[in-house]
Amino acid sequence: MSETADIVFKNGTIITVNSKDEVAEAAAVKGKKILFVGKNADVESFCGADTKVIDLEGKSLVPGFIDAHMHFMMYALFYKETIDIAFDKVQTIEGIKELIRKAAAEKKPGEWICLWGYDQNKLLDKRHPTIDDLDEAAPDNPVQCVRCCGHMGVYNTKALEIGKITGPDQFAPGEVVVDAAGRMTGLLKETPNDMLWGYIEHSDEALKEGYRAFGDLMLKSGITSIHDAGTYGGQFVKVLQDVIDDGTFPVRMYVIYYNVLGKQASRDWIYHLIDTGLHTGLGNEHFKVGAAKILLDGSTSGPSCATREPYSHDPDLKGILNWTQEEVNEIFLDAQKAGFQVTAHAVGDMAVEQAINGIEYALKNCPKENHRNRIEHCGLTDEALIERVRELGIVPISNPGFFTINGSDYNRYYGKRVDSMFAAKTYKEKGIVTAFGSDCSVINENPMLGIYGAVTRKDMNTGEACGECQKISIMDAIRCYTYNGAYASFEEDIKGSIEAGKLADLVVLSENILETDPERIPEIKVEKTMIDGKILYERDDI
Ligand SMILES: [Zn+2]
């Protein structure tokens, strides 16, 4: 006599992501776990009078998506108080100034005005806003106008005064941008940009509201687990635990410990954590202490990542490296000794090499089985670097959604180097486990954009291909977005695939994704999202 299921799915294309990549027809769920996966005929025995039966009509059922790198806490911070200036919202600097004027009219003098999301390559003006633009629009309020990548932003005179930023000599070359006359343009990169965040205050209530709103958005995108890539300090973690405890935030969180308020703050934060004795793995199925992270360089799209050879479009530029090798070695070793999985944001090949060296050093001096040390992004590589990633058992966290949004820019910035950027195919051939992350809020969180990027290696806006030799199958892309994400947080035994005994985190898609024309992947919708056996989202426009 079989157990009776609470919910049964049948007539589906159930992409199990088990070790054989099997596709099943039916699945049964009881309580918070998966009870059975297999054939339609065999699922009948799990159906009782109270069992809810969902006919999938051939559509795909996939494991809940695991976004292995996103800036969840950052988004929450934006939700209430930040003005969205992505290109689809505003196309000119004059338009941005208009939004600032409007905000200034509603605020008291001295209150911050925060904006996020412009891209100087997309703006019709083809330039960054300047200190003068912002001063003119809001002379009495500090203004923060952050580029979509988060690694740089423009500030007005009031904001620079608050941050005590007086000129380029306080920071590494290039971090405080000046014009030909030596006057600050307002554009800050990396450390000074990060530091300015620390002056902007947020209430617990605003954060809670942001978390809950973002949680709803995640469910709509089928994301059931998140690896958060960085906090703004203890308040952000505390409030997260509050909303998980009071049951208003259902998405599972793996909290990567990184303080975004600059290099010194992130260093202090990790040593503070080491002092507490807490380390990776503490927590439960909903909240877990994750890796300790540092930030080695800039972004792919800025571009500000640290490359060994100059960018292809500008022979004078090769990005900024934030740490010395000795500093990386030391903090990785100390964090690993204290029980942390370690990771670094490393995008350019110079930064990737530095991260690999650091991990190698830590493992040599503190050998550890099954360490799963990660590299966030691991953007530009080559054969030799990838081979070292394999040898050392590093888990690269890739962001193929970037091709979907920035592919054409990458071709311009990196030339042939795009052929080994987020090298999913090579990783697969070499048996390297890579997990996918959106890097939201840098781009939209929708996993379909990431799957599209991995499968087509195309810029969705221009149609231009970008490193086509690294294309992978839809099945493999789904694995990177599910099981491999669970692997990157040491949780593949409880989630990441549709197998009996695992947590019932499941997503119904609007069609059979395995038969979808790859060009149409971005059109696929999430119809239902289940966490812990409960359907928490159902699409209402069908
Ligand atoms: Zn990131």
Total strands? 24
Strand content: 15-25%
Q: Spans with pLDDT under 50 lasting ≥5 residues?
A: none
CATH C-level name of the domain at 73-197: Alpha Beta
- Derived from helix and strand composition plus strand pairing, the structural class reads alpha/beta
Number of helices: 17
Strand order in the sheet with the most strands: 8-15-16-17-18-19-20-21
What is the molecular shape?
Answer: globular
Give the distance, in angstroms, between the N- and C-terminal Cα atoms. Answer: 37 Å
Give me the oligomer status. Answer: single chain
Please supply descriptive tags for the structure shown above:
single chain, 542 residues, alpha/beta, Urease, subunit C, domain 1, Diaminopimelate Epimerase, Chain A, domain 1, six-stranded mixed beta sheet, 24 strands
Provide structural commentary.
An eight-stranded parallel sheet has the order 8-15-16-17-18-19-20-21. A six-stranded mixed sheet has the order 3-2-7-22-23-24, with helices on one face. The longest helix is centred in the middle third of the chain and has 17 residues, at 204-220. Among the domains are: 7-64 and 502-538, Urease, subunit C, domain 1; 73-197, Diaminopimelate Epimerase, Chain A, domain 1, CATH 3.10.310.70. It is globular, with a radius of gyration of 23 Å. It has 17 helices and 24 strands. A hairpin with a 7-residue loop joins β2 and β3 (23-24). It is α/β, with parallel strands linked by helices.
